[in-house]
Design goal:
Helix content is about 0%, strand content about 55%. It has about 425 residues and is mostly beta strands. The chain folds into five domains: about 25 residues, no CATH class; about 80 residues, Immunoglobulin-like, CATH 2.60.40; about 80 residues, Immunoglobulins (Immunoglobulin-like, Sandwich), CATH 2.60.40.10; about 80 residues, Immunoglobulin-like (Sandwich); about 100 residues, Jelly Rolls (Sandwich), CATH 2.60.120. The chain has a four-stranded antiparallel sheet, with no helix packed on it.
């Protein structure tokens, strides 16, 4: 028969009509239905990182007598069946980064055609995001990041600082990284993402603050206005993060504290003709800096102590020029008197201030203390009554608390 001719397989009457069934000779041979012609050009498309678990198969339909198509995976004898004239099918439920071979065959009641085959590999999936980013061992300029690795297909991890798009990269299976070169007392936000050829995962994020650094040490401690009982310390402030400064005397662990940005302090209550060493340190919540040191000597006391007349009132005034020898931080006046023979004397110190008396042996502010009195007189006034041998004695007239003002001193016998 000529290709394309028709044959009559059956003719007859039904009712009043005449009918016949005619088939194309390409579909029949000797009156028998043929298997369909095999499809061709099987291809796999829509392979993406975003959906690595599916692929779309396409093919060319070369037959006109198929009932449909059977799509076989090489690892299975159970096909996916699609209707006649179909030329596309999306396969789902695949495993990322896996090789598959599929064969498509046309079929009808006569059987299956030969197949068209395609092998392809699904793309790798992005890794699962890490979790629980945390920090430890935070210092002034470093911090250690730790996280949980939740993926099994990462190439590594990218560690981003919020202020930069350039990550630190660490290998697969890493769960810790120490970040250095940070700035003290500064807030940072870091994000860690897993990555592979498919791209980056979502990130796990942590914000933390580095510790404050100790302040830079002051320098050039110097002295000026040195007197018998005071000296002014000056220094250069070299830091910008101090809470203040601590001024230590070498003989004491208890500092004088002054506020931030201070560069001078007058030290009072010193002893004449005495060597002192002072150290100034900057401090903040991180601790103290190293110190700047200075040694100096107070001036000798060359002032002649005035002599007080017995049985006579002596008027005086406390001022800030003369420090008390025996009561730190107070002001004082000193007087001497002489006895030619053993005598009982009464010394009265009266004032509107709360007075305090010292009786010393000899003609010196630093003489041996014989006795002292606070409120032995009326009210807040002081009184000493004592029988003294012949000799010279010194009175220190001072106050219970730091004060200036007028007083009256009298030695009676």
């Amino acid at each position: 028969m000529t290709e394309g001719s028709e044959v009559v397989l059956f003719a007859g009457t039904y009712g009043r009509g005449i009918y016949s069934i005619r088939l194309n000779d390409a579909q029949r041979q000797g009156g028998v239905l043929l298997k369909p012609i095999a499809p061709s050009h099987l291809n796999a498309i829509h392979l993406t990182h975003y959906s690595p678990t599916y692929a779309t198969l396409t093919w060319r339909d070369n037959s006109n007598n198929e009932t449909g198509f059977k799509i076989y995976r090489s690892s299975s004898n159970t096909p996916i069946i699609v209707p006649a004239n179909t030329t596309i099918k999306t396969i789902t439920g695949l495993t990322p980064n896996t090789s598959y071979t599929y064969t498509v065959k046309a079929y009808n009641s006569a059987g299956e055609s030969a197949g068209t085959r395609k092998t392809f590999r699904t793309l790798m999936a992005k890794p699962t995001a890490p979790s629980n980013l945390n920090t430890s061992h935070i210092t002034t300029n470093s911090a250690t990041l730790t996280w949980q690795d939740k993926s099994n297909n990462e190439t590594g991890f990218k560690i981003y600082r919020s202020s930069s798009n350039t990550p630190i990269i660490v290998p697969a299976n890493t769960t810790i990284k120490t970040i250095t070169g940070l700035t003290p007392n500064t807030s940072y936000t870091y994000t860690v993402k897993a990555y592979n050829s498919a791209g980056e995962s979502a990130g796990t994020r942590k914000t933390f603050r580095t510790l404050m650094a100790k302040p830079t040490a002051p320098s050039n401690l110097n002295t000026s206005h040195i007197t018998t009982n005071s000296a002014t310390l000056t220094w250069q402030d070299k830091s910008n993060n101090e809470t203040g400064f601590k001024i230590y005397r070498s003989s004491s662990n208890t500092p004088i504290i002054v506020p931030a940005n201070t560069t001078s302090k007058t030290i009072t209550g010193l002893t004449p003709n005495t060597s002192y060493t002072y150290i100034v340190k900057a401090y903040n919540s991180a601790g103290q800096s190293v110190g700047t040191r200075k040694t100096f000597k107070t001036q000798a006391n060359t002032t002649t102590i005035p002599t007080i007349a017995l049985n006579t009132n002596t008027n005086g005034t406390w001022d800030t020029h003369t420090a008390s020898t025996h009561r730190h931080g107070r002001y004082a006046k000193f007087y001497t008197f002489r006895l030619t023979h053993s005598t009982k004397v009464t010394i009265d110190l009266t004032s509107s201030k709360d007075t305090y008396l010292f009786l010393l042996q000899g003609n010196s502010k630093n003489g041996t203390k014989i006795t002292h009195n606070d409120d032995g007189g009326a009210g807040l006034n002081s009184r000493i009554t004592r029988t003294l041998a012949a000799g010279t004695y010194t009175i220190e007239a001072t106050t219970y608390r730091p004060a200036t003002g007028a007083f009256v001193l009298r030695v009676s016998r």
